[in-house]
Amino acid sequence: MSVTSASPSHDRPHWLALDRLGVLITLILLSSFLLPFALFRANRILLGDGLPLLASMQPVAASVLLLALAFGVGAALLRLPALIKLAAGFGVLTILFIAMGLSAETLMPADNNYARVSPAAGFWVLVFGLALLVTDALTRLRLGPWTRIGILLGVCGAFWALLWSGLWNELSILKEYANRAPAFWNEARTHLLLAFGSVAIAAIVGIPLGILCYRVRPVRAALLNILNIVQTIPSIALFGLLIAPLAWVAANVPGAKASGISGIGVAPAVVALFAYSLLPIVSNTVVGLLGVSAPAVDAARGMGMTWLQRLVQVELPLAFPVILTGIRIVLVQNIGLTTIAALIGGGGFGVFVFQGIGQTAMDLVLLGAVPTVVLAFAAAVVLDAFVELTSRGGRRA
């Protein structure tokens, strides 16, 4: 009779095993302690002095943050259930953002309107590591589309509550906002108008062009090649190339200038963003229509439907998730590209980015860059959810 001894690895609980991605996240979190947590500057344009975490806030706040980070490291490192990892990631992120506000209140001298306190590299590395932990947990949970949208709304609500509480008022980026609040919301409206307006126009034009390419093969090759060439032109170059022809149109075409067309400003920005948007929408429309199953088309033909009825009632509904994916790609792309439109007077968040670069004021750069990133991320999450919902509807049909 042979006696089999149990190996120590079999006696160890599953959750005590190391998570491979968690090891990477742990290294990222630990590396943040080699970098400054907060940056103190005598005024908004000086480089300033980086301060480590323990020197950036009161001992009690620093101790709470360190304990929270230790819990976050443990949640990342071990093979815990994804729901625990998600709760740990969000919880530690909340404490981290609160600690950053407390750090600014601690470091700001009394009655000093010139000094500035900003998050330093260590803070951003911690945010990146914890965001990676949250993203990994969300991927493992495979949450439904409405749940993902609900989490996004919850995160936006929590961040709004943080700003409303005034805890971040001493941070430099909020001071930049306080000095430019009316201009910020005006440029926000312009940014949304340029990004969403150009995508809407591209969808109105691009989907019919995609249908034309689907129906007429020779047109497909020629049009897609032209749109590919447009896509290869650098964005700054395309904005610049449109200045001269649009200025000529404004000067020589009656009523063009009165309708807002000019060499600089919103008009060339919309035209350039529209041109960049066409290829993904047209190509995804073609791919979606080509991907419609032949039995579905044959069944519609057998029912006596005309080609237009088949297109509207069968092919386009089944191809819609792929078309919406193209619109998602374009929207996220245009939210970022709209930033460059500020170089030709188009407005948007890019105004603050380029003003900050010119003044060497990095917090002014962040005032334009952070809303752009947040807006692009939110648009991607929402449209991803809609793509999944339409895909489910198509499969049921």
Automatic annotation (TrEMBL):
Record's bilayer topology term: Multi-pass membrane protein
GO cellular component, one term: plasma membrane
Main localisation: membrane
Domain ABC transmembrane type-1: 188-383
Coiled coil: none
UniProt record, GO biological process: glycine betaine transport; transmembrane transport
Family affiliation: Belongs to the binding-protein-dependent transport system permease family.
Protein name: ABC transporter permease
